[in-house]
Amino acid sequence: MTHSETLFEQAQKYIPGGVNSPVRAFRGVGGTPIFFKHAQGAYLYDEDDKRYIDYIGSWGPMILGHGDQRIKDALHAQVDLGVGYGAPTAIETEMAKKVCELVPSIELVRMVNSGTEATMSTIRLARGYTGRDKIVKFEGCYHGHVDSLLVKAGSGALTLGVPNSPGIPASLAEHTITLTYNDIDSVRETFKTMGDQIAAIIVEPVAGNMNCIPPVPGFLEGLREVCDEHGTVLIFDEVMTGFRVSLGGAQGLYGVTPDLTALGKVIGGGLPVGAFGGKRSIMEHIAPLGPVYQAGTLSGNPLAMCAGLTTLNAISEPGFHDRLTEKTNAVAQGLKEAADATGIPLTVQGAGAMFGFFFTEEPSVTRFDQVMACDIERFKKFFQGMLKEGVYLAPSAFEAGFTTAALSDDDIAHTIAAAKNVMATL
Ligand code: PLP
């Protein structure tokens, strides 16, 4: 038995499924999860001292790589000053100013503790601001475990949403309309009949929770138009894309401006942080300025602000995202070449420092049903093979891959050579 296997056995005695977030249990790929004890730069080290090149980066936050000295120094200094006061601090304003500078659509920003809290708060705010109950989301997009957003489409395009999990009241889910990602016509159709009841459209501007699906030209622009026509709040969930696909996020990359934005992951530099912000006229409805309630014991915690602000300053260095995008493209193209060399049909897609690969004959994947039709069994074998080769990919065919600034050319070459070896066995 490996140390990871032993630790997993013990964990299952006390933690549901042995994990604190379901995807970590490796149910999507089989086998037992790897337990890690250390990480540095581009690498994770497991409890059996095996090294892996990391393409998850703690599911996005570690954009600088692990153990960045600047973050460690900032955290050590703050620990000596105090780990939290539950009262205002100067660094919160510094952080808010930085976020507003980097994401111009954000005029006021509120810090929270996770991406889920961020999206949940944008939905409440949009409902409070418009006085409407219904919201639109898209199939295959994930916005955290918010009741209103853990909803799937009912049968038929315009029917009521149904809960995706027991515990979510049908009476709440019925306010959520789930449409097809990248299909602006279905959005226009829906708004024709019930536009004046819809508080918000929430969208991942690059979908990263059904592998990696960039928006087709006109989709985000169309959402903006529809929202303007109907007085609906456009929410970009940039928890994953924020500060990653470009310094200004997906809205910077595609030039479409939302009313509200949810942020998470990179903004916390590895600590538990989220944020939401947007137009001043909407954000002023949040307590204590307005009647929409939102609060948090640890929100704006100084340790989290230190790690986040240090990360945002580091990624603001000129050329940072160009270099990271280049590396990401090299990884994606390398995977494609490895597949071509072995005759395996593979499609690669990406945006900035996010990438995805699909075992499919389709030249591009733009919708959830196409993702579901990919060869998931082949993905599982590929994942396990890469793990043996010391490459740690997301343990699910439905997650995007992330690169970090610590990834070297040698790491990329190792990854591509490993992919060639593994593809040859599929
Ligand atoms: N929104 C998106 C796009 C996400 O990818 C995630 C998490 O993966 C969330 C929201 C939820 O964030 P958290 O897990 O920090 O609650």
Based on the model shown, name its key terms.
4-stranded mixed β-sheet, 426 residues, 2 domains, porphyrin biosynthesis, Aspartate Aminotransferase, domain 2, binds pyridoxal-5'-phosphate, 38% helix, alpha/beta
Strand order of the largest sheet: 4-12-11-10-9-5-8
Q: Main beta sheet, described?
A: 7 strands, mixed
The whole-number mean of residue pLDDT values reads 96
- As a percent range, the share of strand residues is 15-25%
Which class of secondary structure composition applies to the elements?
alpha/beta
The top level CATH class name of the largest domain: Alpha Beta
Characterize the overall form.
globular
Catalytic activity: (S)-4-amino-5-oxopentanoate = 5-aminolevulinate
InterPro entries: 4pyrrol_synth_GluAld_NH2Trfase, Aminotrans_3, Aminotrans_3_PPA_site, PyrdxlP-dep_Trfase, PyrdxlP-dep_Trfase_major, PyrdxlP-dep_Trfase_small
Protein name: Glutamate-1-semialdehyde 2,1-aminomutase
Family: Belongs to the class-III pyridoxal-phosphate-dependent aminotransferase family. HemL subfamily.
